[in-house]
Amino acid sequence: MLNPFPKPTDPSELRVGGVTPLTTIDYPDHLSAVIYCQGCPLKCDYCHNPELIPSEATTPVPWHEIVSFLDQRQGLLDAVVFSGGEPTLQSALPAAVNTIKKMGFLVGLHTAGPYPERFAALLPLVDWVGLDIKALAEDYAALTGSSKSGSAAWQCAEMLIESGIPHQIRTTLHSLNSAPDKQRVLIKRLSTLGKTDHKWQTCRPSDGQNTGASLPGN
Ligand code: SF4
pTM for this structure? Predict the structure, then answer.
């Protein structure tokens, strides 16, 4: 487990592998841009953004270009979503979130919840969270290659539901969670944590086209 985020940090240190300039689906009911943070500690075999798993991007997007782009989109976009990869891997994330909030945008976070301490620190800063709960905690290691990833993700689910922050918990259908009895137990365990919005989703193909590559006007 990583330590809580160190302070202070410089938002320009955020390693970004791609940006989607406009989307209607990544922050419910809002027009948003998505910043794809580089690096992920997990190795899901269905990963739809494998190019984001290495810590360094092949074609990184500089932070100043992102800020400049968003500056031109004020009044046109409602929100900015930090996705990945795994955004909470990077120490610069809270500073980057604060920069975006000061620009007047809502901030969304997509995470698989591998770092509960960091997740707890981020919750007061964000407006909406999309959390992946990939399977029952005991089945995670076979899916992600990380023995502690299941307990970490479920800890984050507990914190998220308790926080009352608008959110969605998503589970990608996969051989480890497709059996009806596994699905029933997963839903039951989530329901014991409190009121939540849970969605089953299908795998997206691994075509490397999900991150966007360039920013218009940059
Ligand atoms: S957590 Fe997400 S980005 Fe990381 S390997 Fe799994 S699917 Fe890919």
Answer: 0.94
